């Protein structure tokens, strides 16, 4: 059993009853405020659940420990993904929201990918912005058509396009319905990310509704 760890978080109530709740997961050095605006742009009216990562790297919040840039402490990734999953379930009950769609950027996208692989029932889907493979040997997940959008940057100095492609294949092999798009961008987000994420969430939501 995973104890429910306490996260500092922000919660914004839904403005529209039928908008899918979002779980917002910031990048290294961010916090619970970072992605609120992005969430409102890509899915207007959605409830927003936005925790702050509990790991500190030189004072910068993250969602799990790493040994170097792009080299993860995988034992910690596993532990933190389960911890985050327990928080999401708990907060969902507390605030009366359904399983959210995760929207993660960079380190937040990597923990979202780990959560999809380790505790898929917690999420309705995931938007992974500049994500990479979080676990070299993930548990055998059954993702049963879970929708996942991966937006990677062609010129990303942190995430090689081949790594995003491996993540896409890993999730698809486990049964996820993955859309991978590589943008003419670096690690930072661009307007194209916002537009594609918004259209994808609207299309996924229309299929579920
Ligand atoms: C990570 O540590 O999750 C990745 O290297 C991305 C980052 O946070 O820079």
List the helices and strands and how they pair.
Elements (H helix, E strand, L loop, with lengths): L8 E4 L9 E4 L10 H7 L5 E4 L3 E3 L2 E3 L3 E3 L2 E2 L1 H22 L5 E5 L1 H12 L6 E5 L17 E7 L7 H13 L3 E7 L7 H18 L1
Parallel strand pairs: 2-3, 2-8, 8-9, 9-10, 10-11
Antiparallel strand pairs: 1-3, 4-5, 6-7
Helix pairs in contact: 2-3
The structure holds D-malate (MLT).
D-malate binds next to helix 3.
Q: Characteristics of this structure?
A:
209 residues; single chain; 5 helices; 34% helix; 22% strand; Rossmann fold; binds D-malate; seven-stranded mixed beta sheet; alpha/beta
Q: Uncertain segments of ≥5 residues (pLDDT<50)?
A: none
Q: Return the structural class.
A: alpha/beta
Report the helical percentage.
25-40%
CATH architecture label = 3-Layer(aba) Sandwich
* CATH level-3 fold name: Rossmann fold
Q: Which whole number gives the mean pLDDT?
A: 95
Number of domains: 1
Query: Which ligands accompany this protein?
Result: D-malate
Q: If helices are DSSP runs of H or I spanning 4 or more residues, what is the number of helices?
A: 5
For the record, give the distance between the C-alpha atoms at the N and C termini, rounded to a whole number.
33 Å
- The proportion of strand residues reads 15-25%
Secondary-structure element sequence? EEHEEEEEHEHEEHEH
Question: How many strand segments?
Answer: 11
Radius of gyration: 15 Å
Largest sheet: 7 strands, mixed
